[in-house]
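Why show two proteins at once? Because comparison is the fastest way to build intuition. When a single record is shown, students tend to memorize it. When two are placed side by side, the eye starts asking what differs. So, the first record is below.
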Amino acid sequence: MRAKIGLLAVAVSAAAFGVDVELPPCGMLLGHGVYNRAPNLNWGRGTVYHGWYGDTLSPLEYTELVARENQGNLVQYWWFSGGRRPQERANWLALEDLGIKIPPPDLKNLKNLSCDEFPVLEQHKDRAGAGMLKALRRCEELGLYSTMIYMWGAAPRYANQITNCPHYLGYDFGERFTFRLDSANATKKEARLDELAKHFTDQVRAEVANDRARGVGNVMTTSSNFYVDYEAAAGVDLTLFEDCTGEINFASALSRGLCRQYGYGLWGAHIANEHYAWVSFDHPLRWKTVGLQFKMKYLAGAKICILESGAFECQQSGQNSPQKYMPHYEECGLSIVPDKIAATKYDEAAKHLHDVGWKSDYCRNFRREMSEFYDYVKKHGTPKGQPETRIAVAKGNYDLAVIDYDGYNPYNAVAGLHDLAERDPRWFCGMPENGWKIACDTFWPKAKDPFGDGLYNRLNTGTPHGQVDIVSFAFDQPTADFLLKNYKALLFCGWNTCSEKQYRVLCDYVKGGGKLFIGIPHLSTDVTRNYCAYGTNDLVRAGDFTELCGVKVRGRGKRFYWGVSPFYDKKDSWIGQDVSRWYGVFRGLLGDLEISNPRAQTLILEHESDTPMLLKLPNGKGETYFFNSWYYPGAYALEHGPGAKNDNLGLVGAIWTRLAKEVRGEAYLTDVGADDPGAECREVDWAWYPDEDLLLLLNVDFVHPHTVEVHVRGRAERVTLAPYELKRMTFKK
């Protein structure tokens, strides 16, 4: 049973089931991470990884600052285990309530640096967590919400009271779980995806159970891994995905899909802009990236946004941040420099400490962006619920891919098993994972040049087809009823291990009216990453997909070069291209099919033998778009056929674009004078909230205006968005 929390009586309910979190009148929880730090100390070593803390306040003082400077309505406390410095430990113990004041560190004279210098800390260790509870209660008094991350070691008499704070949201165990590079599993001669998934999920489930036993309230995760869906399957109450892997809208699509699947009622984001915007801090558009992330999450349906760092201290030592001017040490590694060594460079550090603390212009810029966005939310409110999504990209069962910043990196190893991948290259990301690059390019494409200077863009992505979810098939959990209720089209993309249970769900989804895109390898039962040399016996029902779509796979078919349209007597093919367009060169492998569906229609075929490559196969109220390839769709990401353009999406992207057009709803975007979203729409992030008749449009380009045609309920209107503009349009029925 999930924990329940009650909030203000004036609040607006965010969920009818799942986590019982009620939102404030503005409809969104927005805030900062607050750290328990002692000032003016070195925190890192190495020629690159280094840094110093500047002026710092106590967590309680930062709480006051949040309220005073209009910094949202939420505080996330990073207490760790009370800190290792005397002043940090005193904050944890709330010794000020006993009239005890611990002086700040004196690095120059090597004083006030060790807890052993202050026996009073040990004498009052029974107060562990008193400062934590005091901060949560102060949030109550200031009308702020609160949550915690990486907190343990509180005495029961304080820990048992935290859930009595009405504005307390719960505990976040953070990024504790991942498949680490070269983990212990990599030493195995063989590995199985099902065993890896079970082991991972068992670990998370044990953490969740332990946190519940501690009485910390709702249990949340700030995973930054693509396999956060296995943390959801392990029973977390809420996901706050950290946007440091994959693009922003890509991360939102997965978070929103999990929200719907697991009935959370709301989802959130952990924004690490300081570390992962990857824009130099002296760039004139640097700070707009902060506001952009807030806007993109707001538009996508996030109801909780936490800015991890930057507002109160400078953590980043790269990207031309102020930390670059601080003294550093030749030693490599992530450990903290011993104080006696750090003291030798204190005089040099003191010249720049004012540039990295909370009073610095650097930190004020983060706080300005937060305040401006919070004002926007208070003025306009937040759309209730989630935006319309008519398409879901399926994240298959046992898809343990490591997704990088462009969706695909062939040097990543599945489940982090690099040692194993060196012996068995199937465990490097390959054809299955390359499908996610196609998905990103199709549904969450990067803005072409949002900074106007060719700078690499990691954050700014459009949604030419509107909001699209990623739905997880982890442990085959989705039901046909869930899929039919939420999605008109379901597109299989990357790895999938099929089962009889999953096959039944897919049959019911199609018969009930869904449109399904799926290929032969998606219907394999393999768990060993054998995605090329499998046989029909590895397929569910030994390749007999008669019930699903009226096709039997008899075995491996012919190798081929080109995919083309079969309708040479028409100007345009089903896919929306001139029929003379050739897709390739693929060097792919077809399946040998027996087709019994009397309504089968060939949409794409292999050019030499007329063998079907893409079949439309009606069944019941729906239809399957069967991709007749022995290889995963990712094998067709590179596409340079006659008529191809430099920015083309390739065959699979073109197929998905056509399917998106078939299922679009009462609101959609096109380029002006066109029937499809094109280059201009790829620069726009948009969402439709039908219950509020509200269309949100965001130009993700900081420099150039973009003009699109908005279509809502049969009405067309040309709209020009200024650079970085978030536009609200209401269409009453």
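Second record. Ask yourself what differs from the first in the token line.
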Amino acid sequence: MCQGVTSTQLFCFYISGATAISGATIPLNALTLNVMNPDRRFSLLLRILLPVLLFIPAHSVFSQIPIRIRVTEAIPPDSVDRERMSKKHFWRASAEVVGFNTGLWAFDRFIQHGDFSYISFNTIKENFREGFKWDNDKLGTNTFLHPYNGSLYFNAGRSNGFNFWQSELFAIAGSGMWELFMECEYPSTNDFIATPIGGAALGEILFRASDAVLDDRLTGGPRAGREIACFILSPMRGINRIVTGDAWKVRPTRGRLFGQPNFALRASIGYRALQYNGHFRDIHQGLGMQIDAEYGDRFEVKSTSPYDYFTFKAQLQMMKTQPFLSQIELKGRLLARELFDNYGSKGSLGLYQHFDFYDSDTIGTLRKVPFKLGIPASVGAGFMFRDVDRKTHVFDCFAHANIVALGSILSDHYTTDERNYNWATGFSLKAGVNLVMRKNRLSISASHNYYRLFTLKGYDYGTDLRIVNFRKLNVMGDKSVASLNMTEARLDWRIWRRFYATLLFTNYVRSSHYRDFDHVKTYSSSLSLMASYKF
């Protein structure tokens, strides 16, 4: 259950000498990681990864966000590279999964001295006897760090020649090994779902990002920088390249499995304000940053390989009492087909995997938390439409309907141990429109996400959560039906070349109907004034 936190520690320990390439200046050592709380470990991982994502080359891309008006033709990979990197190495991949879990356990046991790491045959037998239970780790640990752990298992397979679906089996096996054998805490139901499924989403994106920075034709400093960036983005791939010698071999080709895909990136930074329930006297304000990325062509459906097309959005902030990461939204296409392509209008229908994370903390004198949501396992149908490229404007829209296999949402009552949210299952609906006018000078976009989540297994009414044994308590939280509406409107006005002035407004409405408590409805909103650059 503590695996996500400690794996991040180990990962940071591995790359402590290599953070200069990403611009990070945070000192990393075992002592720092040992005393760092989970939220700061969470922030540290993001501070390392995000600058490296900005390192991904986009020099061949002419597409724009929110609408990709001009999509350049992707350059396919060299056949020699594809054949070489598609060779499967089962035993090497399996050894990496087992070796990672063993090394992680040794780190927890002999360096961290974590209580959960004191395992024996008796603890393993007890894990099998008691079975899986819902755990009470923090939201960031359970719905981001555990999926990140799963991405390492996933990429052990992916970097050893296995495809997306085959690599998912390594994530399942790695998660099962850890939950059943490597901890003296009972195996976690939510971890066993979130780790492999969310791990596949994060893992494939990081694997493709690592692929984009590689260039085996280079030598010296430029080559070393790219290899370090590859290692940080996908540690398992970096290890494999060192083991096989690919990290320093010079070839006449780039050494990329995916060639040179289309990639668009938008970075925004500026002022952000957050308020709760209309209490403007308690506005929180500070620095905000948002990263938006689009990979591939949304209407290119000849290839149905998973994640040939995906979008990624991350929102960060530096405000008192608020988490560093406030939002992640990821949509990856698993398969698709063209519905029509008539006179410039295009439409496609696909199956998409979704990964969502929204986080906030207490605000002002009210000491209220506006919202929390984690969706590490969700899949559904998605429709995309683009109108004719007219002289005055270009218009497109999208709509998604998804099943949420595992989700979590803020609770007003289950606020004990390390958890203040309910586990749940349900569905989500997403829709949005984008409009670009005046030859890319002005772009307007609006979107709405609706989540309906059902917490089915609650604790008995009257249970005193202050004295309960959480190791034995096996519940999803407060029995309830909850919803979160997230509405976003954005305006970008080009001021010079690729620089834009941005106005971003987001509104959150949470509604929770409890079986044993009164209905709770809260409102919060944020406003951002930023400068944006489209790569």
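One difference worth noting in the second protein: Confidence is low (pLDDT under 50) at residues 4-42, 52-64.
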